[in-house]
Specification:
This protein has 20 helices and no strands.
């Protein structure tokens, strides 16, 4: 359906201006709720649980599901479905298992604003809180992935230079997040989620005219892919992430644990009442299904109608240029931009909240204001200011790190998340169910799990990111169990010795 694209750039520029105006207005509206650290981080009770659930799904989706994973489909074929099916089924299962207990623990000790604080409160350990906050900084790789995805979109569809695309995304997000905090982030994500759902469904429906075959469209797609290369329709791919059963099992473990990531679990803490958790999880599940399943088929179709693309991550932008008229392309591009920015804003908010609440407040405040008697309000104001200032610095660092385009957007986004999961999976999950879990075991798990992951990936000992994450998180569980039991035994031994005296 290629046609004159003269009007495409003006269409998108007008919509971008409208988008920036809307998010800025939303940021100013959210400023009413962002005068405190709690309001900036969570906006608790200010947003309906259904909208928070939708925000969970949109924050999950990101450039990875709309650009990176379809790029995998373009390269590896049907084996990529192992990832997309897990994104809905396995991730939602994890959300159902973790949500209620996480929320209940989060209400103790005056309430938790961040995942590091939640762990610090759970194990009564400031050291653990600081360690996890440092680990959260790995999410900057995820932000870089979103920057790359946005720049790729602009470059492929309308010819905007790569660097300008990155600068636009960073600038828009920093403005409205700094103004409106969690309120602006969650409300914008909820609205953008509707646009993203429409894009997903439309991409899926478009197979009827790009691939053809009517009701047998999947059979036609299968035949076309087989004609190109029989490996594209095999359940496993000879190279890439899906080359073995164990590799796929590692991916499912990642997707199950994905809900534990700070920018997602913070959504649970935003829900005000326990009875609202049902609405939250149902809405989150629905949005996960729509946003994770459909777009991958457009990546498969792109391999058929657009062979030989220079970059697999450009499969979706190139596909929509081929499949839709200019006006629809402009709307789809805005939907895809929403997918990218809806995750980026959550990541920025999660990192900066941890910098302010878990690093600055715990480490810097006791030193900088040692001899000053700060009131709670004054302390909260200083922490909030530190969080907002760090937002600008994180944005600039992510922009710098985005200068060199990665080979695979999907692998880049999963690198940082895998590092975090390797460290926190055991302390969170065992903290729910195991009565012997204690801070010694939790600290050992964070250090050994994340440390092992960094060693395996940096040394090349395990080149498969997901398998490195699996091995490292299993080490984290072992360290958590053994460290907790040893600490408990030592405590009992000291108590017995004291009684003997």
């Amino acid at each position: 359906m290629r046609e004159d694209t003269t009007w495409l750039l003006p269409f998108i520029i007008v919509m971008l201006i409208g988008y920036f105006a809307w998010t800025t207005w939303l940021g100013k509206k959210g400023a009413v709720h962002s005068g405190s650290m709690k309001g900036f981080a969570l906006a608790k009770g200010k947003i309906s649980p259904a909208l928070v659930g939708m925000s969970f799904g949109t924050s999950y989706a990101s450039a990875n599901l709309f650009l990176g994973v379809p790029g995998w489909a373009y390269t590896y074929g049907l084996s990529t479905l192992w990832y997309t099916i897990g994104c809905f089924g396995v991730t939602w299962l994890g959300l159902l298992l973790f949500t209620k207990t996480f929320w209940r623990y989060g209400q103790k000790n005056g309430g938790s604003l961040t995942l590091p604080q939640w762990l610090g409160n759970r194990y009564n350990s400031k050291a653990l809180q600081v360690l996890v906050a440092l680990l959260v900084l790995f999410n900057i790789y995820y932000i870089v992935g979103q920057n790359v995805g946005l720049a790729t979109m602009f470059e492929t569809v309308i010819g905007i230079p790569y660097m300008w695309g990155i600068a636009i995304g960073v600038g828009i997000t920093i403005v409205y997040v700094s103004l409106g905090g969690a309120f602006a982030q969650i409300v914008s994500d909820g609205v953008q989620g509707a646009a993203m759902a429409a894009v997903s469904i439309l991409l899926f429906v478009s197979l009827l005219w790009t691939i053809g075959g009517g009701w047998n469209v999947f059979g036609t797609l299968h035949s076309e892919l087989r004609t190109i290369d029989p490996a594209l329709v095999a359940p496993l791919s000879k190279s890439g992430p899906f080359y073995s059963g164990f590799a796929i099992l590692s991916i499912q473990w990642l997707l199950f644990s994905f809900v534990l990531l700070p920018h997602l679990m913070n959504k649970v803490l935003t829900v005000e009442k326990e009875e609202d958790l049902r609405t939250f999880t149902l809405t989150a599940g629905l949005s996960l299904f729509v946003l994770s399943i459909f777009s991958v088929f457009a990546g498969l179709a792109a391999r058929v109608i657009l062979p030989g693309l220079a970059s697999a991550d450009s499969a979706i932008p190139a596909y929509i240029m081929e499949a839709f008229p200019v006006v629809i392309v402009a709307l789809l591009v805005m939907g895809l931009i929403s997918a990218i920015l809806s995750t980026t804003d959550s990541l920025y908010l999660g990192i900066t909240n941890s910098i302010g609440n878990d690093l600055y407040k715990v480490l810097a405040v006791p030193l900088l204001y040692k001899n000053k008697n700060l009131s709670e309000q004054e302390l909260d104001g200083k922490v909030l200011k530190a969080s907002k200032i760090s937002l600008v610095f994180i944005g600039l660092i992510s922009l710098y790190m985005s200068l060199n385009r990665p080979e695979s957007l999907a692998l880049l986004t999963n690198f940082g998340t895998s590092a975090i999961i390797s460290g926190i999976a055991a302390p969170i999950s065992l903290g729910y169910f195991w009565k012997h879990a204690n801070k010694t075991g939790a600290i050992a798990s964070v250090i050994s799990g994340a440390g092992c992951y960094m060693f395996l990936t940096s040394s090349g000992t395990v080149s498969h990111v997901f398998q490195a994450m699996f091995f490292s998180s299993m080490l984290g569980f072992f360290s958590m169990i053994s460290g907790s039991l040893l600490a408990e035994a030592a405590k009992k031994r000291d108590k017995t010795a004291q009684q003997a005296i």
